[in-house]
Amino acid sequence: MSGKLIVRLLAGILCLCWQTDLAAQIWTVPEEVLDSIANPVEADRSSLMKFDTKRIVTGEIEETDVPVYVFRFLNKGGKPLAIRKISTSCGCAVAECDRKIVAPEDSGKISVTYYPKGHPGKFERRIFVYTDLSASHPTAVLSLAVSVRQGADRSRWFPHSMGKIRMKAKEVAFRRDMKDIICIGFLNTGDTPVVPAISSELLPDYVRAWCDTSGVEPGKEGEICISFDPEKFAGSVAAGTNGPVRVPLVMTGLGVPPGTSTVMLTID
Hints:
The protein is mostly beta strands. The chain has helices at 3-23, 31-38, 230-234, and strands spanning 49-51, 55-62, 68-75, 81-88, 93-97, 101-102, 107-114, 121-131, 140-149, 160-162, 165-167, 171-174, 180-188, 197-198, 207-211, 221-228, 245-252, 262-267.
């Protein structure tokens, strides 16, 4: 065998090993990054929006319940406070404020309706309140600690089969001008613990994705969380694209090929 042929064979083997190693990579989000997403820096003068409490512990509730929890606050500033937007870390929590403008020394309340159906277990849901004090940082980050007793049949709440798990959704959408985080619930329908991993190969730097719960036991639920950073997106090549930008999120460790274990992100 000639020397050139040996070199080519070795190069091919090295390339194959590199590709295999690359395909095995997963996205690991550092703890400090996760904390910055769940607990972002609040706006300057956020203390002007004074809450009675920023964390409510629900106690145990049933999947059939639809409770409403109220966070009360007072405008301690010298001018009216405008509520611009309220977002939550899960679609199961819907938040709204009783008024858009709160006068100085006047009070307001943020009501959070929680839909626990299909969400048994213990979760910490975040509510991000944006006001005219800052366009990029929330004025308040509220927390709802929920404990939901498991109901009977939950499979119908997870319509999308992906090997060992069933997902609540296979598509998520972000606005290109809004920083946001979306968590998708999944149910382990297998007979062994499952640890979904997220491949980082196709993820741009303006998207982060991770499994919020690892080692999910059979019959238990977990969450895949996805965050979007509009500032990083604005500096990317994709920002100049006309129309929606689509980013595939490929999960591994489910025993099925990528074509059937992909969540599609749309940025519009």
